[in-house]
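User: quick one, sequence for these tokens?
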């Protein structure tokens, strides 16, 4: 087998496991509410803490990957992530949740994108869009499978047993995945420069860099808030817990189409229009959530949402390479992700607070729609990319 495809398998496994755990967390909301009486604002804050940790450490993770490669970085983060999830079984106070989910799982999340996708961008310079989409199908499969697995384990083992089984399994999968990862060999010194492109210092003085940062801040709250709250939103509208869990699985299944489609088009039409291709279905789905209260409608809305959701997790890394090259891809990609995680950490808390205060997600979904609309305007105003010719593979 071509060595590059072992890299793809390792990256897919990492994406499947880390994001699968994140999506599965929403299945534990009702158990925490029933046992501890914790509010949705508090439960959302646990996820927000994880995203804040992810954003801060993604900057470091990108630099460590540029210097040391993905194997050690992903392996270490994977052990911490899985152990943190398993130890949730011992929580009894809110601060336990912040440490174990917010910090430990946040460490795992901090490397799953910036390290895997930066590595893929280096191995597949000519087809990085579609191969990024293939890798992110691992995320989508995790979004489909993990909530269903969590629902089964909660029913059969109780919520404490469920987190232990899932956390220990995650350690095994993430360590195995890390073992498959490595950076491509450096070109010989007698050839041209190892990697063409801008340094981080050069990139941060461009309008494109700050536009991408702001766009990430604007759309990421939707990507974090909707999956986290859609299950309890469905049960609020009268769905059973099992049927509400299917909403997350629909997001994951639909996002596979989004990831592969947008990945393919990114290679052909570039990042600007690929972003728009993702934002439009995201905006339509948010309008749908504002007005819909029928169960069948929620399934359709989540299918539309999933396409945009999946595509947005595919488009960022290739667009960074498109505008800035590969010289400092991880170092540039990390700060852009950081801006997204600032928004992503705030969004779920505000949505939970709005629900606790009003008993409805109406204004939360409305606010997210306004932010996505602003992101569309910003995407259309992106400057011409500084695309650099990629060598044939």
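Assistant:
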């Amino acid at each position: 087998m071509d060595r590059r495809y072992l890299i793809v398998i390792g990256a897919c496994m990492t994406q499947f496991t880390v994001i699968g755990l994140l999506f599965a967390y929403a299945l534990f909301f009702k158990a925490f509410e029933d046992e501890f009486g914790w509010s949705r604002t508090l439960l959302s804050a646990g996820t927000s803490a994880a995203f804040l940790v992810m954003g801060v450490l993604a900057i470091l993770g990108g630099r460590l990957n540029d210097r040391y490669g993905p194997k050690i970085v992903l392996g270490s983060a994977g052990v911490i992530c899985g152990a943190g999830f398993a130890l949730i079984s011992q929580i009894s106070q809110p601060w336990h949740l912040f440490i174990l989910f917010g910090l430990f799982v946040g460490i795992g999340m901090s490397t799953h994108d910036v390290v895997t996708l930066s590595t893929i961008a280096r191995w597949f310079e000519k087809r990085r869009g579609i191969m990024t989409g293939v890798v992110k199908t691992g995320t989508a499969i995790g979004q489909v499978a993990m909530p269903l697995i969590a629902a089964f384990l909660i029913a059969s083992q109780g919520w404490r047993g469920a987190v232990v089984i899932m956390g220990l399994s995650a350690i095994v999968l993430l360590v195995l995945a890390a073992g498959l990862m490595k950076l491509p060999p450096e070109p010989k010194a007698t050839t041209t420069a190892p990697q063409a492109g801008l340094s981080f210092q050069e990139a941060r003085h461009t309008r494109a860099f700050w536009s991408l940062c702001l766009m990430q801040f604007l759309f990421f709250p939707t990507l974090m808030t909707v999956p986290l709250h859609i299950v309890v939103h469905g049960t609020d509208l009268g769905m059973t817990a099992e049927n509400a869990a299917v909403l997350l699985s629909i997001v994951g299944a639909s996002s596979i189409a989004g990831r592969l489609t947008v990945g393919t088009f990114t290679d052909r039409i570039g990042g600007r229009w690929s972003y728009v291709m993702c934002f439009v279905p995201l905006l339509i789905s948010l309008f749908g959530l504002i007005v819909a209260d029928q169960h069948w409608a929620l399934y359709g809305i989540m299918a539309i949402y999933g396409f945009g959701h999946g595509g947005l997790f595919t488009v960022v890394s290739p667009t960074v390479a498109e505008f800035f090259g590969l010289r400092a891809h991880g170092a540039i990609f990390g700060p852009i992700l950081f801006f997204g995680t600032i928004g992503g950490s705030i969004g779920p808390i505000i949505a939970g607070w709005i629900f606790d205060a009003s008993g409805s997600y109406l204004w939360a979904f409305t606010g997210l729609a306004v932010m996505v609309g602003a992101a569309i305007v910003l995407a259309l105003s992106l400057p011409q990319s500084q695309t650099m010719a990629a060598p044939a593979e």
